[in-house]
Design a protein that fits this description.
Length: about 475
């Protein structure tokens, strides 16, 4: 190793240490956004994140409706409507939505979740009015033809076949959701059950749009080279002319009681790497009583237990005991642990080792240094994620759509900085009446496939509020 290489490696390590220390001890959060808000007379909320580094903007419309708002037996409407919003031509444009955006140098997409549906574009700042004109048009009315519906209906059914029906992990998650949530609408897949999706009609989509897609049931986020005055003026011109409408009350039943633990086990010939996970319904940002404490501690707990190769579970199971090829944890409304054993025969030993590590955590707690390091990693991740126009817009949109306010977003560094992990973790220190349920889901190769296992990375983390079906 050359002296020059040694010098740069030492300098890099020193710089990283300085940056991590700065992230944690800096009294003013380095990631702070220039966040401003306004509300139009028809109820539409506007959120502006000024960022003048590039002459670009990200524009997002978030509707407070998702798959959990569908009527029983009509699953899949919210996601199918998302697809249909891109169909048809609106005056004065001679092309469909995405072609207009593309021909003006921009990009666009959309997503559907349990509680929200969103549409977004990134484009030159001087095209912001064009985007608002297009979005206001499809907020006001749909423009697709019966032929458009028939084509896109089959496209969505094929999407389900490709992304769920032929994917063992997706099939297992679908069954786990149904078991975990009981009668709660989160039990249904966002894309819909195929037999219900098949029965949807064009009039169902039109009625769902008319019921939920109103300016007073939406908020707009614009991030980029704009000012709040510019955005407010354009929003008044295009969104402000749309009338407010009565919107149904959103119904969310409480968690089931008493506590009920479930184990779901699945074998499939396409599985090469066994997978184990444990998932808890945990306190979330959407619960007002819990918004300022429990979720922040849960984020820190997840970072400490299973985020990256330096986490407790990874070091214990992968590095020291060599029982697993990967271990992860995740928190986003659900608290989840994931692990893949080195071989199917090592699954029981791996699970026992996880239980031992969790018991040790509950009995002995964690050091102040471990908590400080986990918090600094979370803060660094937030900074890196926000180092783009769309990153900050997504962060704010996800927070506001889950029941938080822009003030809650601004308070994130301070609240996460004082999160306490002494004693039981956040998902166990829940207020009376909030019952956590958990489900364990081992996924195995079929019997005839056991000897052909190959090491693969564990799946991407998922949770209630973070399963997205993008169009």
């Amino acid at each position: 190793m050359s002296d020059v290489f040694r010098f740069f490696r030492a300098a890099s390590i020193l710089l990283m240490g300085v940056l991590v220390a700065a992230l944690f001890f800096c009294p003013v959060p380095a990631w702070a956004m220039d966040l401003k808000t306004f509300t139009l007379s028809n109820g539409l909320q506007g959120i502006v994140i000024e960022n003048h580094r590039l002459p670009m903007v990200t524009h997002m419309v978030w509707y407070r409706v998702g798959s959990a708002d569908e009527l029983p037996g009509r699953s899949g409407i919210a996601h199918l409507l998302e697809h249909m919003m891109f169909k048809g031509k609106r005056e004065p444009f001679a092309e469909e939505f995405s072609r207009v955006i593309s021909h003006n140098g921009g990009s666009d997409n959309a997503f559907t979740s349990y509680d929200t549906t969103g549409y977004y574009q990134t484009i030159a700042a001087d095209r912001l009015e064009l985007v608002m004109q297009l979005e206001a048009g499809r907020m006001h009315a749909l423009a697709f033809s019966p032929t458009d519906f028939q084509t896109e209906h089959e496209v969505v059914r094929e999407e389900r076949r490709m992304s769920i029906d032929t994917m063992p992990k997706a099939l297992l998650i679908e069954r786990l959701q149904a078991t975990l949530w009981g009668i709660h609408p989160y039990r249904n897949p966002i894309i819909g059950w195929d037999h219900e999706l098949k029965s949807l009609k064009q009039e169902d989509i039109v009625a769902f749009h008319a019921l939920w897609y109103a300016p007073n049931n939406a908020f707009v986020i614009v991030a980029g080279d704009v000012t709040v005055d510019q955005v407010r003026r354009l929003a008044e011109k295009h969104y402000g002319v749309l009338p407010a409408r009565a919107v149904p009350e959103r119904l969310r039943p409480p968690p089931l009681t008493p506590r009920a633990d479930a184990v779901i086990e699945m074998r499939h010939p396409e599985v090469r790497q066994p997978l184990w996970s444990r998932v808890y319904i945990a306190p979330g940002h959407h619960h007002p009583m819990e918004r300022t404490s429990h979720p922040y501690a849960a984020h820190v707990l997840s970072e400490l237990l299973g985020s990256g190769s330096s986490s407790r579970l990874y070091q214990s199971l992968v590095v020291d005991k060599k029982l697993a090829v990967d271990v992860q944890s995740d928190y986003d409304g659900l608290f989840a642990l994931y692990a893949s054993p080195r071989g199917e025969g090592e699954m029981p030993d791996m699970v026992e080792a996880i239980e031992t590590e969790l018991k040790r955590f509950l009995e002995k707690g964690v050091s102040a240094e471990e908590v400080a390091y986990a918090k600094s990693c979370l803060h660094a991740e937030r900074i890196y994620h926000g180092d783009s126009l769309s990153g900050n817009a997504w962060e704010v949109g996800m927070s506001v759509s889950s029941g938080q306010t822009p003030n809650d977003v601004a308070a994130w560094p301070e609240r996460s900085g004082r999160a306490d992990l002494q004693g039981k973790p956040a998902c166990e220190r829940r207020p009376a009446g909030h019952v956590a349920r958990n489900a364990v889901k081992p996924l195995h190769p079929s019997r005839r496939q056991v000897r052909k296992t190959q090491q693969r990375n564990a799946p991407k983390t998922w949770g209630a509020g973070s399963i997205w079906k993008k169009g």
